[in-house]
Design brief:
With 297 residues, this protein is mostly helical. It has 9 helices and no strands. It has 2 domains: 8-153, no CATH class; 154-286, Four Helix Bundle (Hemerythrin (Met), subunit A), CATH 1.20.120. Helix 2 (59-86) runs antiparallel to helix 3 (91-102). Its main location: membrane.
């Protein structure tokens, strides 16, 4: 007899963990943008000689809250990997979840190094550290997304269309907050908003590529392989451009007019290709044609 409640399926658990990782990403950006990453008197895991700082909106609390959210999310990520090993999950799902856990210590180490030793050691609170922290976080987020998608069973034309729709909407919404488009001031709040919407778009592209690849290999009813390959190519190109904008959203380079124009071009390419993919699959699955049911356990 299983102690797990019937509503707690692998897909729901993995999706929740992926969502918390997205929020963690945005919290990390907000923490760095407000300068709170240098709070807590450069202590870790303590914060200004306390386990719990004063519960008011101040740099110490922001940094501490980011750490707590990261700790809880880290345990949930380990839980995803454990479920793939002890549950009935296929090899690729198990591999994605296990890799996410394998690189998690690296992310924790880089984060701890950044907020404690700072510039006292090579690669402390520097561009290289920020870049590593961002890239590893994006890798973990992507792997969790794949584990969620693959662990849920087969896809369908409708799921493919939904994934591309999420990607297109997320990328277009990220333009509102992007530093490449002067709609709003690129404040800490705007930066967090940019990464929430941009990462939602990224996750949609990850799902679109995964479903399109499945359609190419095994076929979906009502979707020919040529169309699936086109969708996959457009989504992959959009993802490459989007990752570029996500990297340029941080202070990894001296943000001159050249980099702003390059950022704008990358954002435009990401949006155009995602919208092109959405146009390619318009109407797909609307007649109720789907593949095998999606497994939810």
């Amino acid at each position: 007899m299983s102690l797990r409640p019937a509503w707690l399926t692998f897909r729901r658990y993995a999706a929740t963990t992926t969502g918390m990782t997205l929020v963690l990403f945005a919290l990390g950006v907000y923490t760095a943008a407000t300068g709170s990453g240098l709070a807590c008197q450069a202590q870790w895991p303590l914060c200004s000689d306390q386990f719990i700082p004063e519960m008011t909106i101040n740099p110490d609390f922001i940094e501490w809250f980011h750490r707590v959210w990261a700790m809880v999310t880290g345990f949930l990520i380990i839980g995803v990997a454990g479920w793939t090993w002890f549950g009935d999950r296929d090899r690729r799902t198990r591999l994605a979840a296990t890799l996410a856990v394998a690189i998690l210590p690296l992310q924790i180490t880089v984060g701890a190094l950044t907020v404690t030793l700072g510039g006292l050691v090579p690669g402390g609170y520097t561009v290289s550290t920020h870049a590593a922290h961002l890239i590893v976080a994006l890798a973990i987020f992507t792997l969790l997304g794949l584990a969620t998608i693959w662990g849920g069973g087969r896809g369908s034309p409708r799921l493919l269309r939904a994934a591309i729709g999420v990607a297109a909407v997320g990328i277009v919404a990220s333009a509102v907050f992007s530093r490449a488009v002067p709609f709003v001031t690129y404040s800490p709040g705007a930066q967090a908003g940019f990464y929430v919407t941009g990462l939602a778009g990224h996750l949609g592209l990850v799902a679109a590529i995964a479903y399109a690849t499945e359609a190419v290999r095994t076929g979906y009813a009502g979707l020919d392989r040529s169309t699936a390959k086109t969708v996959r190519l457009l989504a992959a190109g959009s993802m490459a451009a989007l990752v570029g904008t996500l990297l340029l959203g941080r202070d990894l380079v001296l943000y001159t007019a050249f980099w702003q124009r390059l950022n704008l071009v990358a954002l435009g390419v990401a949006a155009t290709l995602a919208i092109g993919a959405a146009w390619t699959v318009r109407g797909l699955g609307s007649e109720g044609t789907t593949a095998d049911p999606v497994r939810g356990d």
